[in-house]
């Protein structure tokens, strides 16, 4: 058997350690109470203060490969809105997002059915208008009249026959735009919806993209930011606390917090490997000097 | 004649369309819009031709692999069958409930996610090998990397590393990004000019 | 009938003092558009009704109804050169009615220059003049000294290594199409690598993601082998198309690395999340790897997994460096001059901003 060299560990050992580390939280429920960052709290507080009956627009712009990061964000924004009696209009600027939006909505409906406290009704609390191509044109046209671009919902029901849309014409009737995205759609929402129509915009993106949107918080062009699994787990924690305090029950479905646990374990392992690599490197250097 | 077709004509076309393209950007007049739309239609047409060429290349490459019996015929067979099957299913529609949609959702999407998740393993092995404090700069990079990794975990947040992470990401990190982007912008413009003027001819094969 | 009376009543209303209405040809456009604007102190506007006529006395016919707190509208249903007259009626949330006087005559016309792009035009013109100056002085025989870039020297070294080992070279041009400049920069480097490969009689494999880039890459490699005097070594089967799906492409390229045992890998152009998948597998095969990209989010991955990485503008400078052509290298000096100008401009603005702020604070303190 070859001698174990700490500065040159076979990559297969690294892979298997990461695999076990990431799998661990699926079997042993370890969750950490997250420290809520101000940019996530800002989004939460904004939605929390909206009066019941307000309408928010949720844009589902993420793809299947980023589901673990983005889907919990979309679900938790919906849950938070429904608990507060805020209505949600869903749209998609990407083709893939449209296929995933209804999946997220049905997850939320199922979860609320289990609680048995409030009922979420399609057409009253939520409507999904589907996907339309031509990002900027779609965003701009909602500023004039949402009926122009979306005359019907995704099932073909006339928008004027959907009760929650009776009083919704354009951004004036929309309290907040939330864009959950795995691509650069937030740029378009900021440039066209915020700059032109002054509608507040909140952004939820993957961790890789999050760095691009911090400057927009400083300039006040977005009200807040949910970044990656970390941001999602913070929002989920806040929403779950609300469910617990409102209805006295502890939510069992915690995908973002569970993903965060897996990510934390994996990240700690990566740091451990970096440290091991350096220990190996310096001990080798020491040996050579001797 | 051959030299004219393979050299002079392409360079002449690049000069004419390059200059017109630059002018078009600053001219909102109808004439300029019509020109832009025409060029766009042509480029779509040319790209569609390229797709056919690519499909032929794909079929030829895998067919030859299967015929040559070099040992990796299995993967090429799967590639060919998958290509032809999806082409066939697509002909009968791509709506929800169609075979194409089912295969896309239940085979392509999971395979895609699997490939994407490999990044976690590769990131671990790459950072293990690369982050060694061999020089002062490397030590600096290593420290920043550890702070940013820990800063995004609950462990790091509890010892205020999240604030340091935020500073690293929004000040030094953003500054270097902008610096690189300015350089890229200048480099790209200079390359464009050299191609338009026919000084850069490497894209024609030197 | 009541509708007609209502319109007549509305048009008869006049604007309160301090409220302004404007109608003008939409600037910087292709024509067929007149912009209407209104502003003043009022409660939020609920409904906007726009009427239009061909002459000042009417008849005014309804042209558009808008809902919401809107303060401008572009009427795109107009003919260029024809005069129009407008009357705008605003109804506020408190049902107050504000009406404009007759606006016009106003006609639309197309613009020949987009004035909003003037600053860009000036900067770009200045930069092009600087570049042309250096190109012309290089033509007169003035030599430009370039500092060595390790990553660029490594390109020839990598080709040489593959030749010594008698194993193929792998070259990828990124995921963007042919209309992207980083792809073109990658293709310029491909031409150089192909010539070297032909000279050293080494196999060059180019798997492609984009169909258009595939056709161009094949032509470039063919011409380069011809230019190097070895058209007999060119094998069109080595330049092929894999897939236009990101991870399908990554799987295909890594498969080629493992099966063909390539000894030198070049990753040039623009990449996304597949970057690390390609380079980490490449690193595990022990091949020498050189990357060059302006994809900022992927740069860290290339830097940790490749032997050499060309960062941002180095990708664009590569062709000039490698060909050692005086004319090609000339623009690099121009780029540096422009960079110095931009840095100086930023420093001046920085101090102006600080000065303005401290002045404002002094004034505030005095008050």
Write up this protein:
The complex is a heterotrimer of chains A (290), B (206) and C (367). Chain A has ten helices and six strands, in the order H-H-E-H-E-H-E-H-H-E-H-E-H-E-H-H. With 290 residues, chain A is an alpha/beta fold. Chain A has two domains: 1-31 and 255-290; 33-253, 3-Layer(aba) Sandwich (Rossmann fold), CATH 3.40.50. In chain A, strands 3-2-1-4-5-6 form a six-stranded parallel beta sheet, with helices on both faces. In chain A, helix 3 (67-83) packs across helix 4 and helix 3 (67-83) runs parallel beside helix 9. Chain B has a domain at 1-68. The model of chain B has no long low-confidence stretch (mean pLDDT 88). Chain B is 83% helix and 0% strand. Chain B is built from eight helices and no strands. Chain B is extended, with a radius of gyration of 26 Å. Chain B has 206 residues and is an all-alpha fold. Chain B starts with a helix and ends in a 10-residue tail after the last helix. With 367 residues, chain C is α/β, with parallel strands linked by helices. Chain C contains ten helices and 14 strands. In chain C, the strands form three sheets. A six-stranded parallel beta sheet of chain C has the order 11-10-9-12-13-14, sandwiched between helices. In chain C, strands 3, 4, 6, 7 and 8 form a five-stranded antiparallel beta sheet that branches. The longest helix of chain C is centred in the last third of the chain and has 41 residues, at 326-366. Chain C is elongated, with a radius of gyration of 32 Å. The relative contact order of chain C is 0.10. The model of chain C has no long low-confidence stretch (mean pLDDT 89). The chains are: A alpha/beta (290), B mainly alpha (206), C alpha/beta (367). Chains in contact: A-B, A-C, B-C.
What does this entry show, briefly?
The complex is a heterotrimer of chains A (about 290), B (about 210) and C (about 375). With about 210 residues, chain B is mainly alpha-helical. Chain B has helices at about 1-25, 30-70, 75-90, 100-130, 135-150, 155-160, 160-170, 170-195.
Topology record:
The complex is a heterotrimer of chains A (290), B (206) and C (367).
Chain A: H1 11-27, H2 38-48, E1 55-61, H3 67-83, E2 87-92, H4 95-115, E3 126-131, H5 135-144, H6 146-149, E4 176-181, H7 185-197, E5 201-205, H8 207-218, E6 224-227, H9 228-247, H10 255-289
Chain B: H1 2-26, H2 30-68, H3 73-91, H4 99-130, H5 136-151, H6 154-158, H7 161-170, H8 172-196
Helix pairs in contact in B: 2-3, 5-7, 7-8
Chain C: H1 2-12, E1 20-25, E2 34-39, E3 45-53, E4 61-67, E5 72-75, E6 84-92, E7 97-99, E8 103-106, H2 118-139, H3 150-165, E9 169-172, H4 181-199, E10 204-208, H5 211-227, E11 239-241, H6 246-260, E12 264-268, H7 274-284, E13 288-293, H8 299-305, E14 308-311, H9 313-323, H10 326-366
Parallel strand pairs in C: 9-10, 9-12, 10-11, 12-13, 13-14
Antiparallel strand pairs in C: 1-2, 2-5, 3-4, 3-6, 6-7, 6-8
Helix pairs in contact in C: 2-10, 4-5, 4-9, 6-7, 9-10
């Amino acid at each position: 058997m070859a001698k174990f060299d700490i500065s040159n560990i076979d990559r297969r050992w690294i892979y298997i350690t990461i695999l076990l580390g990431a799998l661990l939280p699926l079997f042993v429920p370890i969750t950490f109470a997250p420290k809520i960052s101000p940019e996530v709290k800002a989004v939460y507080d904004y939605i929390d203060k909206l009066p019941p009956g307000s309408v928010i627009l949720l844009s589902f712009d993420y793809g299947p490969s980023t589901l673990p990061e983005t889907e919990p964000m979309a679900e938790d924004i919906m849950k938070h809105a429904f608990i507060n009696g805020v209505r949600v209009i869903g749209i998609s600027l990407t083709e893939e997002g449209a296929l995933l939006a209804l999946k997220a909505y049905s997850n939320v409906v199922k979860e609320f059915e289990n609680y048995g406290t409030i009922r979420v009704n399609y057409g009253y609390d939520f409507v999904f208008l589907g996907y339309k191509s031509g990002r900027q044109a779609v965003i701009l046209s909602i500023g004039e009249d949402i009926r122009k671009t979306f005359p019907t919902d995704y099932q073909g029901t006339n928008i004027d026959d959907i009760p929650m849309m009776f009083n919704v014409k354009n951004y004036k009737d929309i309290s907040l735009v939330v864009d959950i995205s795995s691509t650069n759609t937030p740029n378009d929402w900021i440039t066209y919806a915020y700059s032109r129509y002054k509608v507040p915009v909140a952004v939820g993106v993957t961790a890789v993209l999050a760095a691009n949107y911090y400057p927009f918080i400083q300039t006040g062009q977005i009200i807040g930011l949910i970044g990656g699994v970390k941001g999602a787990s913070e929002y989920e924690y806040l929403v779950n606390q609300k469910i617990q305090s409102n209805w006295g029950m502890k939510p069992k479905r915690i995908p973002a917090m569970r993903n965060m646990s897996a990510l934390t374990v994996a990240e700690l392992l990566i740091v451990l490997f970096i440290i091991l690599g350096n220990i190996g490197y310096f001990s080798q250097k020491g040996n050579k000097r001797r | 004649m051959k030299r004219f077709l393979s050299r002079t004509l392409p360079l002449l076309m690049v000069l004419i369309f390059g200059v017109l393209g630059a002018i078009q950007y600053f001219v909102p007049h109808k004439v300029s819009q019509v020109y832009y739309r025409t060029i766009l239609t042509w480029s779509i047409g040319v790209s569609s031709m390229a797709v056919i060429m690519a499909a032929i290349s794909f079929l030829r490459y895998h067919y030859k692999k299967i015929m040559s019996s070099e040992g990796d015929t299995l993967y090429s067979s799967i590639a060919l069958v998958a290509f032809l099957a999806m082409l066939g299913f697509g002909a009968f529609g791509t709506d929800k409930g169609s075979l194409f949609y089912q295969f896309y959702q239940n085979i392509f999407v999971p395979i895609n996610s699997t490939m994407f998740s490999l990044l976690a393993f590769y990131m671990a092995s790459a950072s293990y090998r690369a982050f060694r404090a061999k020089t002062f700069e490397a030590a600096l990079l290593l420290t920043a990397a550890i702070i940013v990794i820990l800063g995004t975990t609950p462990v790091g947040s509890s010892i205020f590393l999240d604030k340091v992470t935020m500073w690293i990401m929004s000040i030094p990190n953003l500054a270097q990004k902008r610096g690189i982007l300015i350089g890229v912008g200048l480099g790209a413009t200079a390359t464009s000019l050299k191609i338009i003027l026919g000084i850069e001819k490497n894209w024609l094969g030197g | 009938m009541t509708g007609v009376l209502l319109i007549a009543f509305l048009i008869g209303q006049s604007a309160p003092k301090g409220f302004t209405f404007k109608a003008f040809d939409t600037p910087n456009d292709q024509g067929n558009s007149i912009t209407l604007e209104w502003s003043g102190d009022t409660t939020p506007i609920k409904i906007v009704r726009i009427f239009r006529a061909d002459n000042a006395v009417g008849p005014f016919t309804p042209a558009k109804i808008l809902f919401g707190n809107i303060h401008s509208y572009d009427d795109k249903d107009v003919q260029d050169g024809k005069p129009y007259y407008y009357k705008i009626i605003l109804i506020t949330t408190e049902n107050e009615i504000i009406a404009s006087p007759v606006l016009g005559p106003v006609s639309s016309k197309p613009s020949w220059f987009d004035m909003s792009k003037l600053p860009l035009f000036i900067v770009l013109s200045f930069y092009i003049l600087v570049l042309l100056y250096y190109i012309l002085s290089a033509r007169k025989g003035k030599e430009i000294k370039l500092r060595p870039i390790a990553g660029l020297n490594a390109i020839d070294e990598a080709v040489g290594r593959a030749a010594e080992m008698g194993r193929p070279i792998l070259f990828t041009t990124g995921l963007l199409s042919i209309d992207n400049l980083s792809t073109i920069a990658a293709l310029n480097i491909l031409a150089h690598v192909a010539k070297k490969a032909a000279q050293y009689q080494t196999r060059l494999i180019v798997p492609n993601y984009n169909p258009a880039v595939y056709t161009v890459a094949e032509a470039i490699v063919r011409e380069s082998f011809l230019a190097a005097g070895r058209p007999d070594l060119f094998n069109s089967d080595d330049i092929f198309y894999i897939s236009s799906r990101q991870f399908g492409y990554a799987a295909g390229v890594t498969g080629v690395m493992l099966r063909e045992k390539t000894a030198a890998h070049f990753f040039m152009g623009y990449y996304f999340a597949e970057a690390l998948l390609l380079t980490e597998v490449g690193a595990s095969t022990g091949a020498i790897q050189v990357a060059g990209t302006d994809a900022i989010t992927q740069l860290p991955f290339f830097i940790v997994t490749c032997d050499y990485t060309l960062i941002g503008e180095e990708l664009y400078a590569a062709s000039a460096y490698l060909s050692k052509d005086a004319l090609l290298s000339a623009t690099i000096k121009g780029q540096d001059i422009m960079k110095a100008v931009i840095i100086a401009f930023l420093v001046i603005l920085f101090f102006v901003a600080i000065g303005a702020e401290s002045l404002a604070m002094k004034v505030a303190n005095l008050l």
